[in-house]
Design a protein that fits this description.
The complex is a heterodimer of chains A (330) and B (495).
Chain A (H helix, E strand, L loop, with lengths): L2 H32 L5 H12 L3 H7 L7 H9 L8 H14 L6 H16 L2 H7 L1 H22 L4 H28 L18 H10 L3 H8 L5 H10 L7 H16 L5 H14 L3 H6 L2 H24 L4 H9 L1
Helix pairs in contact in A: 1-2, 1-4, 1-5, 1-8, 1-9, 1-10, 2-9, 5-6, 6-8, 7-8, 9-13, 9-16, 13-14, 14-16
Chain B lengths: L28 H7 L4 H17 L3 E3 L8 E3 L2 E8 L1 H27 L3 H4 L5 H6 L20 E3 L1 E4 L5 E5 L8 H14 L15 H11 L11 E4 L8 H11 L2 E3 L4 E4 L2 E6 L2 E4 L2 E4 L3 H4 L15 H6 L4 E3 L16 H9 L10 E3 L3 H9 L4 E5 L9 E2 L5 H13 L4 E5 L5 E6 L2 E10 L1 E4 L3 E3 L4 E5 L13 E8 L17
Parallel strand pairs in B: 3-23, 7-8, 7-12, 12-13
Antiparallel strand pairs in B: 1-2, 4-20, 5-6, 9-10, 10-11, 14-17, 15-16, 15-17, 18-19, 19-22, 20-21, 22-23
Helix pairs in contact in B: 2-6, 3-11
Chain lengths: 330, 495
């Protein structure tokens, strides 16, 4: 298929997922803070901006102190100039799907366009001021509906695989960030490095919020019963082979798509992704906690970005034979 | 004839359906007879079905100045336009003749001896001042001289019913997708209308176009040349058509950034590597085609494309520089070019046209501006048109000043009444002006798709049929020659 169309589908998958995961993270942070002492507010949003790699953008824009909850939420949800905001991600997802309308079902286009139009028609300032939760839920549900429609209407050709690959890669990265934001925010309640240490204070409700934001709370309860240990939550979200939002699940599923796309050719993207996946697949959570978890998560994110670069080189940026020499000699 | 035609007023115009005495013309008796059995309510119900088909299939266009990028449909009237075989024969011969002559002229201009200029059939200065003239096209070869590979010659019918050529449209004529979609919709919405008629099909346009595109591939391309459609992208008004044609032909719809030129060869980027491109059916204007040669700010084109074409490694369709012959003053010289290159009399006449740099003609025109139509020579789509009988004094004064300032920039034409055709308006038929744009394809030979796009000026009294100016359309039927058809479908006797 045309490289541009493949790239559009890949990015459509990424942007839809980015909007959804940003909504999940803003939601969990916002609601955690409703039950937190005032002094934590600014610091907590700072940490969220850090894990989303948006702190420098925020500061460049001169939007004031991060203790102004409405300003931060507005920045993350509806600021069109912030390329990482939900509104911007949604608009870019729409642009990408619009460019490939000939390849996707009309239902998929309608679902993506519908979210964009819904966001445009709402009084977002009021949503943010009064009840961001409803808006954030809408974004989350719409994103899941978009992927559901895609999944039910697209043939399993290369186009589908690029869309799925984009979504899975983005989600792997964002789930790392979701764990990291809570891990970082709660460093006062240090996560015990060992499973048999019980957290006595009330900090676990923060981890419940994380599970809920990953739609994984019920599944967690079924598997870990009444456990209130953050180590179990981290294990579940990072290493569960069967949880659709866990980092390992996203990486191994990405691997299936990428292997099918590269059709057995030697592929740098496959190698990089395979190494990243296996760095997690056979790990014990205790090992990870013995190291610096934050650094580990940052490292995984960096590797995922390298995979995305390799995918772009391998599939989207082919040059004529002569041009390769020109680049090599310049 | 049923209440649908109660109070139908033919007015002083040539009516496509009704003869002057009010009787139905013979080639319309079948379809009018069958449609007359419908109640207005039933026809309106069919209109709703039609609207749903067009909307859900996204058969739409967007207007350039519409900020929201709103998609509009180009409404198809339920009463088809019918052209009998003998009339079509004249149209077809006339268009083949005209396009052949224009191909010859353009080939001669850009890679030949310029015989028509040397022999003063058309003034050199006129060619060189035409907005669509491109010096950069000199020396670019086109196999079979098929420079106007797709043309959409606009025809109108005057008060006598004579078909006249209004414009040639040799750059990027659009609308053929509506011809095919109208036919497809018509067979679903009003299948009964077709009963026992022998309507010539149109759905072979895709293979016909692809065949012609392949036939103009550079000789080096081999047996299986790769052709692509180059679109400006999803925001272009005619994007639907670009995508539609790509689907009809099963070829890639590419944007400029999908192509790259290296050593005068054009390549297309795909996920599995790069692929050589031999023929580009571009739906991008000359100015945006290659930023190295034309507008350097163009993001739509492909740097180096023209040099690849000049090297004979790729064929650009339609050829660069065709716009010279779309100049509305140049148009006046086409009948002479037919005589010069083909030694034939034109089959289809022009509309009487005045050249305003000629002192006598200009004086006459300025004396009767309120009776004539004035057009800027470089515009298309009905933009900048001033219709004398409908213009205000201020508009006439403005156009007078414009002509005196730049006589080469305008032409004046006699107002052609434009034939009218009954068209559903509300719950009854009333007369609306129509034109006809048949599509001709040049490859090894010139062929015309039977029928074409009938455009309807939906506003009462309006003479402007362009889609950008609020027009509609009609499915257009060319009937088989009764003698040639043999046995009619359904077992009835032929001819």
């Amino acid at each position: 298929m045309l490289a541009r169309l493949a790239e559009n589908l890949f990015w459509a998958g990424r942007y839809v997922e980015r909007a959804e995961d940003t909504a999940r993270m803003v939601d969990v942070t916002y609601h955690t803070l409703l039950e937190s002492p005032f002094g934590e507010v600014g610091r907590t949003w700072d940490q969220l901006l850090d894990v989303l790699h948006l702190r420098s953008v925020w500061e460049e824009r001169g939007l004031g102190p991060t203790s102004d909850v409405q300003a931060v939420v507005r920045f993350l949800v509806l600021d069109q100039e912030n390329q990482g905001s939900i509104a911007a991600a949604t608009a870019r997802a729409r642009e990408n799907v619009r460019s490939v309308r000939e390849l996707v079902s009309s239902e998929l286009w309608e679902a993506v366009n519908g979210l964009h139009l819904e966001l445009r028609s709402r009084d977002l300032d009021r949503d943010v001021a009064e009840q961001p939760s409803e808006l954030l839920r809408l974004v989350r549900n719409a994103s899941m509906a978009i992927y559901g429609v895609a999944s039910e209407t697209m043939p399993r050709d290369a186009g589908w695989r690029f869309l799925a690959l984009g979504r899975l890669i983005e989600r792997a990265e964002m789930t790392c960030r979701l764990i990291d934001v809570r891990y970082g925010q709660l460093d006062a309640l240090r996560v015990p490095a060992r499973r048999d240490v019980v957290v006595e204070d009330g900090g676990f409700h923060h981890w419940i919020a994380v599970l809920k934001s990953a739609s994984a709370f019920e599944a967690y309860r079924r598997r870990y019963r009444a456990s209130s240990n953050p180590v179990d939550v981290i294990e579940f979200l990072l290493l569960a082979h069967d949880l659709p939002r866990s980092v390992v699940y996203c990486l191994t599923s990405s691997m299936h798509q990428l292997e099918a796309l590269s059709q057995g050719r030697p592929s740098r993207a496959v190698r990089l992704l395979g190494r990243t996946a296996s760095s997690l697949q056979y790990r014990d959570v205790a090992e990870l906690l013995d190291e610096d978890l934050h650094e580990f998560l940052e490292d995984v994110q960096q590797r995922i970005q390298q995979v995305a670069e390799a995918v772009a080189d391998e599939f989207f940026r082919h040059q004529p034979p002569g041009a390769m020499h020109a680049i090599a000699s310049s | 004839m049923g209440i649908l035609f109660d109070g139908y007023d033919q007015g002083p115009f040539f009516d496509e359906v009704f003869a002057a005495d009010g009787s139905v013309r013979p080639h319309y008796t079948g379809v009018i007879g069958r449609l007359s059995t419908f109640s207005p309510a039933e026809l309106q119900r069919r209109e709703q079905i039609r609207d749903r088909i067009f909307r859900t299939q996204g058969i739409t266009f967007t207007l350039a100045d519409d900020e929201e990028g709103l998609e509009r449909t180009f409404p198809m009237d339920l009463l088809p336009r019918v052209i009998p075989a003998d009339e079509w024969d004249v149209i077809e011969r006339g268009i083949v003749q005209r396009v052949t002559a224009l191909n010859r002229f353009l080939e001669d201009l850009y890679v030949g001896e310029q015989a028509a200029i040397h022999d003063r059939v058309v003034p050199r200065w006129l060619v060189h001042t035409a907005e669509g003239f491109r010096r950069e096209a000199f020396g670019i070869p086109v196999p079979h001289a098929a420079r106007c590979l797709v043309s959409g010659v606009d025809l109108v019918r005057d008060a006598d019913g004579t078909y006249r050529v209004l414009e040639d449209n040799l750059r990027n004529p659009s609308g053929v997708s509506y011809v095919l979609e109208n036919r497809a919709a018509m067979t679903r919405v009003l299948p009964i209308a077709f009963a026992a008629e022998r309507v010539r099909p149109v759905d072979h346009y895709g293979p016909m176009l692809l065949g012609a595109l392949r036939s103009v591939a550079p000789p080096a391309a081999g047996d299986r040349p790769t052709a692509v459609i180059l679109t400006p992208g999803v925001y272009n008004a005619a994007y639907f058509e670009h995508a539609f044609l790509a689907r009809q032909m099963g070829i890639e719809l590419v944007e400029g950034r999908d192509l790259v030129v290296e050593d005068h060869v054009v390549w297309m980027r795909s996920t599995s590597g790069i692929e050589r491109v031999d023929v580009i059916y571009r739906r991008i204007d000359d100015d945006f085609l290659d930023p190295v040669v034309f507008r350097p700010d163009s993001m739509l084109g492909v740097p180096g494309l023209l040099s690849a074409a000049r090297a004979g490694n790729v064929t650009i369709v339609n050829a660069v520089g065709n716009g010279v012959a779309d100049d509305k003053a140049f148009y006046a010289f086409v009948p002479d070019l037919i005589r010069f290159y083909l030694g034939e009399e034109p089959v289809l006449p022009n509309v009487t046209t005045y050249l305003l740099w000629e002192d006598e003609q200009r004086a006459e025109v300025l004396g009767r501006l309120d009776e004539l139509v004035v057009k800027p020579v470089g515009a298309s789509g009905g933009y900048g048109l001033v219709i004398g009988p409908q213009a205000s004094d201020a508009e006439l004064a403005a156009v007078r000043a414009a002509i005196e300032h730049d006589p080469r920039g305008y032409i004046a034409q006699e107002v052609v009444g434009l034939s009218r055709h009954p068209t559903m308006v509300g719950d009854a038929f009333s007369g609306r002006h129509v034109d006809l744009r048949p599509f001709a394809i040049s490859g090894e030979k010139v062929e015309v798709l039977p029928g074409g796009l009938t455009r309807v000026a939906l506003r009462e009294g309006s003479l402007v049929v362009n889609s950008s100016q609020g027009g509609g359309s009609k499915d257009t039927w060319v009937l088989e020659d009764a003698g040639a058809a043999g046995v009619a479908p359904g077992g009835g006797g032929g001819g």
